[in-house]
Amino acid sequence: MTHIDKSKPVMITGATGYVAGWLLKKLLKKGITVHAAVRNPEDEEKLVFLNELAVNSPGKIKYFKSDLLNYGSYAQAMEGCELVFHTASPFALDVNDPVKDLIEPAQLGTRNVLEQANNTLSVKRVVLTSSCAAIFGDNADLMQTPNHIFTEEIWNTSSTPKHNPYSYSKTLAEKEAWHIHDKQSRWDLVVINPSLVLGPAVNPLVNSSESFKIIKQFGDGTFKTGVPKLGFGIVDVRDLAFAHYQAGFVPEAKGRHIVSGHNTFFLAMAKTLLPRYGNKYPIPQKEVSKWLIWFIGPMLNKALTRKFISRNVGYPWIGDNSKSKTALGVSYRPLVETMTDTFQQLIDNKIL
């Protein structure tokens, strides 16, 4: 069991990111001093929302210049911290160079942060933001699992640098973390494996992320003729931040945790928006056939390859979230709340 002293500072990588924003808010509310590792501490515009959180909270933020690919750059930020949250990793589906844009930052960044934990004697626990993408690559993988359900025991074996490179990057990064952890005994590793993260952002500047692109397409006409029959796991970013907090401070927390509130489909997600927004926006109301997606998908998005379509469209996504509930005490808010709060933020920020 690992007891973390809340009077000591806590370090977060990717502090300006989507998940980190809500986690920071919770830490500051609890009066904790946060060492925020950011690429450019001088960029006041990017940090304004974090500074506002600190002004209204008993906790404090201290900024440290750090970079995922700059070895040793987390040393100063980590000094004196018993707890480290490593949330920084690129999330993009349509990239030009998967190795340079996704795989190297994820794997080498994780190595950089965790080897710094090895060199920082105060560190007792690292909480890693991994992904359900490290558990599965395609929805069709579900057919190979025991009882046709994704659990923490399963690892993604179907992704490659060419097929689902984002999922491949998350798998390599988490394996790297366990490899480094298992060679020492001073600090423990707790891993959070979220499904697709939705919900409003603390930082309105992150509205360009992949999560927001999907919700934007429900309202901008992209799917007005219909959506693919595509299964998803969905988690609200606020519930995910709570899971991270618990992973840091629950003494008994250990291992991997699937953090996912809902096993759902595109159409079910869209239907939650119809009562409130159906009169003003072209919210999709039906599914389109797999052969049509097969035909036009690759023209719409490089990530929608024929292989991706054949191994995902028409398949459900089913994940077992029971460990997150029992071990971390997470309770998940309704899907309609997540969807409407995200959609409304896009409207308020004039993105829709």
TrEMBL record:
Residues 10-246 form the NAD-dependent epimerase/dehydratase domain. Pfam families: Epimerase. Keywords: Oxidoreductase. It comes from the Bacteria. InterPro entries: Epimerase_deHydtase, NAD(P)-bd_dom_sf, NAD(P)_dehydrat-like. GO terms for molecular function: oxidoreductase activity, acting on the CH-OH group of donors, NAD or NADP as acceptor. This is Dihydroflavonol-4-reductase. It comes from Saccharicrinis carchari.
